[in-house]
Amino acid sequence: MTDLGSNVQAGERLASVVEPPRTVAEALAEALRELGAVHACGVSGGAQALLWAALSKRLDVLHFRHESGAAFAATEAYFASGRPAVVFATTGPGITNALTGVLAARTEGAKVVLVTAYASAPQRGRGGIQETSGYTMPASGLFEAGAWFDDAVVLETPDQLPQVLRRLAAGLRRPGGYVAHLSVPNAVQGAPLTQPLPRFARADADGAGDPSARPDPNRAAVSRCVELLSRAPFAIWAGFGARGAAAELRALAERAEAPVMCSPRAKGLFPEDHPLFVGVTGMGGHTAAAVAYMRGDRAPRRVLVLGTRLGEPTSFWNPALVPADGFVHVDIDPMVPGVAYPQAETFAVQAETGDFLRALLAALPSPGGGAAPQRAVPRPHPGLPAPDGASRVRPDALMAAVQRAVVDGGDAVVLAESGNSFTWATHCLRFAEPGRYRVSTNLGSMGHAATGVLGAALGRNGRAVAIVGDGAMLMNSGEVSTAVKRGLPATWIVLNDGRYNMCFQGMAALGMSGLADAVFPPTDFAMLGRAMGARGARVESEDALEAALAEAVSTPGPFVLDVLIDADRPAPALGRNEGLRAAQAARSEHAGMSFPVVGA
Asked: In this structure, are 200 and 289 located in the same domain?
């Protein structure tokens, strides 16, 4: 007779020799880890139980309160770490809830893989709970490549997995963003693997992609650029696509004495305290300084554009920013140059920005006789007010305190939410190094920063601070609970004015004050944060800002700082109106109106 202990030992030895077949869910999770994914953000559900379990064994899984928050966080985890991030969701509303955050990932240029569940074949069309299939959801939009996804597929059999993973690996290695959707029926999730999987090279952690997957700068194009840029003084307009080439950008600017402008998403890419820095263009930026430079007696004849579409959030399509001799426009996407300003002469170069700048620096003639004195450019940043005892905090005074306590006093990443929070932070804060400021200007969804701050803290394993409006915080305050669960060092600075204030101020400026309701009941966000287990404090006057901010950024876990701000102080968003007026100058007086239309 054999005792129980010997049976257990024999079973353990047998298990170590004869492993059960790996399932599709397990193989997929392992492949995602091999491809460089570290973090998975999502919301659970019965239909994807096997996927959820497999991801939890192999990746760092953070369970969110809403799928859109999970997708926003995955986007920011990618930008903070340079590694692809995974979003997981169940069938039906799990998928549709995630879509806003997924579209943000696509438009921001992140590398994100959405993994969801799908109805198994025998159950389709029979009215199952949260059925996900061609009977209930638009397959051409959600499960095929198109506007939402760079690649998408329903994994119908285990035999498909190697082919699908090869496509996934190629997408994650390529330069630029890549968003994929892999939906796996429940029956397939648990099916045994039918063939060995290929081994994959891990995607680069810097986000630039595999060098072999991006085009080399054309030598003739580089030579032509040298010729064009050598004819007369030029300036540089840098965007988020140049974020991996900060050192090369500075080297070129200083060698060529070329002043630099940045898009809002590229804020900090070139030091904002540098004598050659003109300012941030576009939304919340320093448009007056940029226009003054471009139309002054030291205006450049040509502008070298690096990694930006020059879309409305960056340029407002303002013709005053077009140089006399046009643009040299460098972008990895050949469809980008010439689109924003079709009337301007544009020499287009398809290349990754860092590769191009290194080739350009090698081809440029060395300066002789010592560098010339640096040309003076306008100082873009406004003077920030000193604190006083006002009953409500002026938003620009809050930004001055954030500059001292958060930007200058530490190394936290700062995210700014859509709306007036975006304009105040972009206009007032100053960064001297890349990678510390994040805004969304493409989709620009409310809630991106309020939940993305978790992904930023997760991805960098350090402090992340979100400057958010109270409207966005009310949309997504449940993710404070997610931060508490993990103890993430996430700080929310809530601009609390009881309004959707960009809408409120904008409607008033358009002469439609009181016609639309943009006001909501007062909320104590510090109390709300404490109710979910975070630390919290409320600031009602400017003389309390310094101490409260010091506590907010030194608390180990999540902290909600509720700041009662002066709701009537105009936000610095006038640049958009100037651009819109210039673009609409030839139109009738009945041309469409838009906001923000407030600020200075």
From this structure: no
Question: Hey, which bits of 19-161 come out as E strands?
Answer: 39-42, 60-63, 85-89, 111-118, 151-154
Segment 157-172 shows an average pLDDT of 94
In a domain, 132, yes or no: yes
Instruction: Please indicate, yes or no, whether residues 422 and 545 belong to a single structural domain of this protein.
Output: yes
Strand 535-539 to 559-564 pairing: parallel
CA distance 492 to 481: 13
Whether cis (ω within 30° of 0) applies to the bond prior to 596 is yes
Considering the domain architecture, whether residues 43 and 180 belong to the same structural domain is answered as yes
Same domain, 285 and 422: no
User: How are strands ordered across the β-sheet holding 437-438?
Assistant: 437-438, 413-416, 464-469, 490-496, 559-564, 535-539
In DSSP notation, 580-599 reads HHHHTTTS-TT----S----
- Of 161-175, 376-390, 526-540, least confident by mean pLDDT is 376-390
129: domain range? 19-212
pLDDT tens readout for residues 389-444? 667 899 999 999 999 999 999 999 999 999 999 999 999 999 999 999 999 988 88
Residue 13: pLDDT over 80: no
Q: Determine, yes or no, domain membership for 591.
A: no
Q: For residue 13, tell me if it sits in a domain.
A: no
Average pLDDT for 65-75: 98
Domain assignment of residue 74, yes or no: yes
pTM: 0.89
Beta strand ranges found along 227-301 (DSSP E)? 234-238, 260-262, 277-280
Query: Is the distance from CB of 564 to CB of 540 less than 8 angstroms?
Result: yes
SS3 344: coil
SS3 292: helix
**Tally of structural domains, the chain:** 3
Q: Cα–Cα distance between 541 and 352 in angstroms, integer?
A: 48
Same domain for 467 and 350: no
Residues 6+ apart with CB under 8 A from 129: none
The reply to whether 43 and 78 lie within a common domain is yes
| Averaged pLDDT, 6-33 | 65
From residue 573, give the alpha-carbon distance in Å to each of 65, 261, 377, 467, 579.
Answer: 33, 18, 22, 17, 11
Burial readout 434-461 (b: 16 or more C-beta within 10 A, e: otherwise): bbbbbbbbbebbbbbbbbbbbbbbbbbe
Q: Which helix (H) or strand (E) holds 102?
A: helix 93-108
